[in-house]
Amino acid sequence: MLKKIPYSCQTISQDDIQAVIKVLKTSFLTCGPKVGEFEKALAKYVGCKEAVVVSSGTAALHVAYFALGIKEGDEVITTPLTFSATSAGFCYLGAKPVFCDISPDTLNISPKEIEKKITKKTKAISVVDFAGLPCNYEVLKKIAKKYKLPLIADACHSFGGEYFGKKVGTLADLTCLSFHPVKGITTGEGGAILTNNSKLAQKMRVFRHHGAVKNPKKGGWYYEIKDLGYNYRLTDLQCALGISQLKKLDNFIKRRREIAQKYRNVFAGLEEILLQEEPKGVKSAYHLFVVQFKTKNRKAIYEALKAKGIFTQVHYVPLHFQPAYQKFGYKKGDFPNTEKYYSQCLSLPIYPTLTKAQQAYVISTLKALLKK
Ligand SMILES: Cc1ncc(COP(=O)(O)O)c(C=O)c1O
After folding, report:
1. For 170-221, how does the pLDDT look when each residue is reduced to its tens digit (9 = 90+)?
2. CA–CA gap between residue 330 and residue 95 (Å, rounded)
3. Does residue 304 belong to any structural domain of this protein?
4. How close is the Cα of 220 to the center of ligand 1, in Å?
5. In a shared domain, residues 175 and 317
6. How many Å apart are CA 324 and CA 92, to the nearest integer?
7. 62 plus 76 within the same structural domain
8. Ligand 1 center to residue 249 CA distance, Å?
9. Domain count, the chain
10. Which residues on neighbouring strands pair with residue 231, listed in sequence order?
């Protein structure tokens, strides 16, 4: 009997454990040298100037929107097919989400919809590389430039992905990452913002540490808080784990892509299943492997797989369906592509340690269910 198979999980090895233990024996558990070391390693990996590490992907988004000056009454354009944090980050600052429907083939925000939604109040465009697939940045950057709007990439799914040879992290003005255990690499909880803008990076470092700015001229102890910030720091223990994990990211992505290719080979010929397109030149990081069931009942398949020890997930209940977002005036029917996707989607198991035997079991179980 095969053990339970989750839709995703972390990959931790002995060197990761040793890296954390080593820090436990030093004098800095937080605010120490591992923070800058991890930031440098992240920036070097993607080829950008700055990385600012924070305590979660949610914090990364909040910090990024704050640094851009998003405030009460502003509008931010984004996708309804995402986790709440993409929008919550600017809602915390009093801004309103302006949702744009997805393209049914890539499942990413439809650039065509964006221009229709831009108003005088629009202050940013925040896009999500859904399931790990980088958005159409060529077009998105043109729109952002035309309207002089900052482009934020919520790349919590796509770290390690590429767009025409350029790494995720270099494609938008600010790129936000998550290091939650199901993501590309993990620090337990954690996140980062990647950018070439050093001024914004400095603002973000202040905001993640209560808004405190030191002034040694007034004394070694002295700091000033002009804007209230948060405690969004990432500990040295977490940064050490991140440094160790980052060394393995390329291998993790390679394995994720092998698993995805196997699913694609098997499902491509099945008329009951619809797959997310991966356009030429775009390399998904395959945080998720999502399928849509054209004819079968998704809930029944979810339950039947669960009974067989295969734990799938649904990503996501569209944000405009969530009670917390109803106050912005959205209703069912507003985003037909997103809603259709939600009604028939399922995320299948994909993670670096998923064995060939486990994947074969997932495939044969699903195929048998489709025949019923
Ligand atoms: C698209 C997206 N954005 C933001 C987040 C928030 O990241 P975290 O869980 O690290 O706060 C997630 C995590 O699930 C996510 O999937």
Report:
1. 999 999 999 999 999 999 999 999 999 999 999 999 999 999 999 999 999 9
2. 15
3. yes
4. 37
5. no
6. 12
7. yes
8. 18
9. 2
10. 209
